[in-house]
Task: structure prediction
Amino acid sequence: MPPGKNLLAFGDLMTWSDYVALWSKITGFPAAFEKSTVAIHDQLAPGGYGEEIGEMYAYMQDFGYWGKDDSSVIFPKDVSLAS
Result:
């Protein structure tokens, strides 16, 4: 790939709902994904940690894990091996 591209490498790309369902299946603990707010995270873990985690989730909700419309980000499917 030419310079200026960022490869997002991953094993599986799944939604939060799918991730929580898989976690629940593997652990045997019932769980469900629910959207939350930064304020609720801050209440659950006061002292700044909850706010930081809440902000991280809010960013991913708004921009996706990789920055949403960032054209410099490519995925494994976009890479071909030239011989």
Remarks:
- The longest strand covers residues 6-7.
